[in-house]
Amino acid sequence: MIRTFSEITSDVVEEADVCIIGSGAGGAVMAKELAEKGHTVVVLEEGGNFVTADFNRNGVDMIRKLYRAKGLIFTRGLPHIALPLGRCVGGTTTINSGTCFRTPDGVLNNWEASHQVKDCSPVTMRPYFERVEQALNVQEVSPEQMGRYAAIIRRGADRLGYEVKPLRRNVRGCQGSGVCAFGCPIGAKQSMNVSYLPRACQSGARIYANCQATEILTELMKSPSTRHRRRAACGVSGIVLNPQNESATFNIVVRAKVVVVAAGAVHTPALLLKNRLCLDSGQVGKNLRIHPTARITALFDEPIEGWNEVPQSCYIDRFAAEGITLEGMFVPPEIAAFGLPHFGEPHKSLMKHYRNMASFGVRVSDSSAGDVRLGLGGSPNIHYPLNRDDAQKLIKGIAITAEIFLAAGAKKIFTPVYQYSEMSSNADVARLSRAKIRVSDLVGLAAFHPLGTCRMGSVREKSVVDSNGETHDVENLFISDASIFPTALGVNPQISIMAFSTKTAEVIRARLAGPA
Amino acid sequence: MRNLGALSAPERKIIECFAEKLVPQGGSFSLGAKDVRISEFVEDYLSNLPLSLIWSVRGLFLLFNFAVYPLANKVRPFTGLKDAQQIAYIESWEKSPVYFKRAGLKLLSTLVMMGVYHDARVAQAISYRPKSTVAE
């Protein structure tokens, strides 16, 4: 059952075993895993509920409906980086590209060794990855669906000796509608709103859309083991938002034995900070990583029409050890337009040839660290200064991508680098590679994977949650989203979030079952 | 309470003037920002956003308009300049070594470009014709 603003006509009071804040990759998996085991689950989602028929392929319309702040969230610090986040039932999974990677083995091993995260070795995590991938029908993009832009990338990469690999995606019956990031118009992408959440609802979970959690309710309770009084979560209160004007209309209170915060790496720490919870370690909101990304566009003589294909179908991981991954990234013209240089007729001329353009992304596994702080009215401020090391990685990735496009026959290359926004030869690329680029020379970066702001670990002084996802400071308060990851992943995080959520759900299930 | 995103007449004029230079009528295709009610688009886009964001964007448009005085030594705001001067002024922001000018221009042009290229007629003009797909 999903209830939205229009169906709520008075204050709501609910009781449940578990109240989950957020319905994205973490919250939806948690809801399904617990509801299927017979637990009563209530999910609070701040955004609206949309069905497949609502996804009209119009990028701007969909951004208005599905993205937080209509896509206009930027980090503070040099350079400002766009940080698109989902705000709808299904969370960011509704607006991502459907790319599925497991957490790299090296990352998991590092978490165990350096961050004292228990039970997260690749062997331990494998069954969780498998369970999630099976539920989402994760599969490689077929050669037929890779499309023309991927063929171009392959043509250039082959000439330079780089291997292009097909991505794995969570789809059933994908037809290459080309608008994954704006809600799949045929329901092929197995985002949470068409996969885990319906199954959670079938098992009795109640989802409240347009409901913003504002307070995590806690009480002092005596710990049976130590007899000390400890703070424990006992519910959530919030407000029902009118989606027309974002005003609060009714109150909602959910009394629950367990609370799971799954609002993402920006809003989870903001909620904790606002509630002054879990502050003992001083780590809430710290250690923000975002995987900064640059889009490189290339103009060809031949038509490509990348909008009729899977926008993110292949990748090159040759430089992954250096923290650089090249990945498919095609967007419709209303989004592409502001990433291209020039204005006036020169810009119009480029847009006239948009059907002849291909684009690819450079993503960096970042060592830069930002943080989430509370701004005016309790809204999060995201501080993230890109360091020179990551900027250099971006430049290297941009140069490699440009070389690939040129090897494939591109006539012009467009990048977000000041004074190198348009290049047309390998000599230009060589100049870029040699240039002393400042962080502030990069304008127009985006990032899609905020994580790390409530990191996991065994050492209470250095982490917010333990290896099971439960906060060190508040009993029965769990976190289940990308904020728990201690470091950057270097890959798209949705499968990692879901796998860890599945694992945490087992712990909560055992907790609710009581002592054996 | 939520109508704080509503634009004043001078703000509309700044946006329209700016947008017409960014995407003028004629040339590679006939349509331009003038054909798509761009200030209404911007106003609608700003509605219901966090107040800090609304004020930042509105402030940036105003700054862009009046920064002509100290930055380009002109005695008129952007909206009062001749066409060629307006183009030169935008170019001075686009090519500026000052990060905040380039970043500010990027944000303002983002709103305008979205408004223009999201219009179905403009999409048609640039041959953007996504194939039709239906659920199996």
Distance between the termini of chain A: 32 Å
Total domain modules of chain A: 2
Shape of chain B: globular
Q: Main sheet of chain B, how many strands, which sense, barrel?
A: none
Based on CA inertia axes, which overall geometry of chain A fits? globular
Number of strands of chain A: 20
The residue-averaged pLDDT of chain A reads 96
Fill in the keyword field for this structure.
heterodimer; A: 516 residues; alpha+beta; FAD/NAD(P)-binding domain; Cholesterol Oxidase, domain 2; 2 domains; eight-stranded mixed β-sheet; eight-stranded antiparallel β-sheet; 20 strands; 28% helix; 21% strand; B: 136 residues; mainly alpha; 7 helices; 60% helix; 0% strand; globular
Write a brief caption for the model:
The complex is a heterodimer of chains A (516) and B (136). Chain A is built from twelve helices and 20 strands.
Explain how this protein is built.
The complex is a heterodimer of chains A (about 525) and B (about 140). Chain A is globular. Chain A is of the alpha+beta class. Chain A is built from 12 helices and 20 strands. The longest helix of chain A has 20 residues. In chain A, helix 4 packs across helix 12. Chain B has about 140 residues and is mostly helical. In chain B, about 60% of the residues lie in helices and about 0% in strands. The longest helix of chain B is centred in the C-terminal third of the chain and has 19 residues. The radius of gyration of chain B is 16 Å and the shape is globular. Chains A and B meet through helix 2, helix 8 and helix 9 of A and helix 3, helix 5 and helix 6 of B.
